[in-house]
Design brief:
Number of helices: 2
Number of strands: 8
CATH architecture of the largest domain: Beta Complex
CATH class of the largest domain: Mainly Beta
Distance between the termini: 17 Å
């Protein structure tokens, strides 16, 4: 019974700790938009209307914590925001994002990362931990019954 209490307490602590880490990490990601297979970070720097070039795209969906494909943004850039060229600047380096009738500069972070989603990994880790816990609990119960019988 002593081992059972220890493993139950351990499982609860790991579950709570892993969910808190995920929430903390999601809130530390910068405002970002994905376009033309590049990831851009939104700044607070406004772009003058006279420096705005052609429309190049639009935000179609949001993804937390970071965008994974073209037309996505994270929570701070609303769906429907329009993306523009900045006159005299290469779109591979910088674009403008229209948010609430203002244009903000967004600079390139790098290529869109095509990796597995961290939250899916964490869900699998918690699920596998729970399954291991149940297997261990079953083994302890069977072992105790055999010892007593």
């Amino acid at each position: 019974m002593k081992h059972l209490k220890f493993f139950l307490l351990f499982f609860v602590i790991v579950s709570v700790f892993s969910s808190n880490i995920e929430e903390a990490l999601a809130s530390t990601y910068p405002s970002s938009v994905a376009w033309n297979n590049l990831l851009y970070g939104l700044s607070t720097e406004e772009v003058d209307n006279k420096d705005i070039g052609n429309k190049i795209g639009k935000i179609e969906s949001q993804r937390t914590p970071m965008p994974k494909k073209n037309g996505e943004s994270n929570d701070s850039i609303p769906v429907g925001s329009v993306l523009f060229e900045i006159k005299g600047a290469a779109t591979q380096n910088v674009i403008a994002v229209k948010v609430n009738d203002k244009f903000f500069k967004a600079s390139k972070f790098g290529s869109i990362q095509v990796t597995t989603d961290q939250s899916n990994k964490q869900t699998w880790i918690v699920t596998l931990s729970f399954i291991c816990f149940l297997v261990l609990l079953t083994m302890i119960i069977v072992w105790r019954r055999r010892r007593m019988g």
